[in-house]
Design a protein that fits this description.
The chain is α+β, with helices and mostly antiparallel strands. It contains eight helices and 14 strands.
Length: 338
């Protein structure tokens, strides 16, 4: 399963010499981590890199704030927005916090199949006052666990993926000169220096942590920037659901659905598609609100969506007729796993 909050994280702290704490080091370290992850297909192009510089006594005042620039093959090319921003602050003095963050699409494997997740890992490097470098690596997949976050054993998935993570952590530690500090146990899993504790042996904090926490978290994220309204369909149902697949540029980004037995309808983001699944999803929710305002029941609203003019920026419906899932949970499973 792919999550919107990390499954686990690892941190390295480095006390550098002054020359090793210049602002460009933040970008150099993140791109070096990208290249290590890429050796194991844990990072694949294109990624996205962000860079910021802020005074420590006023973190809201961004001297430099460059977001979501394309990173190809883990290299920082000269003449790019990021390289220009780094050059501007390379000789800056003062009590500064320099941050670089790279979002890494990557591949996870199961028997005979390879899946891509747009945010498999995130690597962040923070340089504090030129005397401390903090490196953090987060993962958003449970492919490294012997049991997934829905409490199902996945020995073959673990066998294909956990060694890649362990090897990447070992190489990153060698490059940084120290072992990682694993993140705290969380509702999904317990990180270790080489990956994760075995949940079959150690047990889990929550039964079906993905269903318990991830589904509500996705709903909150989808609706966070939408105005409040009474023109919403119910977003949960105990009945089977009919749904259409939403694709953008050949990639599945989500599913719009309606209940067959009550007046529930909503959109499920394909978590592995990353931010665009949520950005497009807000627009599909607004369309469903329009259908609700017109007095359409849920299934009629689903049919109404198929007759609207195509908007490629939010994705398009790919089927001529809706598919049917035996439950909303099974559709949520599809949207979270693949």
């Amino acid at each position: 399963m792919i999550t919107t909050d990390p499954i686990g994280d690892w941190t390295w702290e480095i006390a550098p010499s002054r020359d090793d704490a210049r602002p460009s080091r933040a970008v150099e370290i993140t791109t070096a981590i990208w290249r290590i992850l890429a050796k194991f297909d844990l990072a694949v192009a294109p990624g996205r890199i962000s860079f910021s510089v802020r005074p420590r006594d006023n973190m809201r005042d961004a001297w430099v704030n460059v977001q979501d620039q394309i990173l190809h093959a883990g290299s920082l090319l000269s003449g790019t927005t990021i390289s220009d921003a780094v050059g501007q602050v390379e000789i800056s003095e003062g009590d500064l916090v320099v941050s670089a963050r790279v979002q890494c699409p990557g591949l996870w494997h199961e028997t005979g199949i390879t899946h891509r997740a747009e945010q498999l890992f995130v690597a962040t490097v923070d340089i504090w006052q030129r005397n401390l470098i903090v490196v953090t690596l987060e993962t958003y997949s449970d492919a490294w666990l012997t049991m997934d976050t829905r409490e199902r054993e996945q020995a073959s998935v673990h066998a294909r993926n956990a060694p890649r993570l362990a090897a990447a952590l070992e190489e990153i530690s060698a490059a940084l000169g120290s072992a990682p500090t694993p993140g705290d146990p969380n509702r999904h899993a317990t990180p270790t220096e080489t990956g994760f504790e075995d949940p079959i042996v150690k047990g889990t904090a929550y039964v079906d942590s993905w269903g318990t926490f991830e589904v509500p978290a996705r709903s909150r994220r989808l609706r966070a920037d939408l105005p409040l309204t009474e023109n919403d369909y119910e977003e949960i149902t105990d009945h089977p659901v009919r749904y259409f697949t939403i694709q953008r540029e050949g990639r599945t980004i989500g599913y719009v659905w309606a209940s067959t037995g009550d007046n529930a309808a909503c959109y499920e983001p394909r978590t592995a598609a990353g931010d665009e699944a949520f950005e497009a999803g807000r627009e599909w929710l607004l369309l469903l609100r329009t259908a609700h305002e017109q007095g359409l029941d849920a299934l009629a609203a689903l049919d109404w969506l198929t007759r609207l003019p195509s908007r490629t920026e939010i994705g398009t419906i790919t089927e001529a007729t809706p598919q049917e899932a035996p439950s909303l949970d099974s559709l949520e499973e599809l949207s979270g796993r693949y």
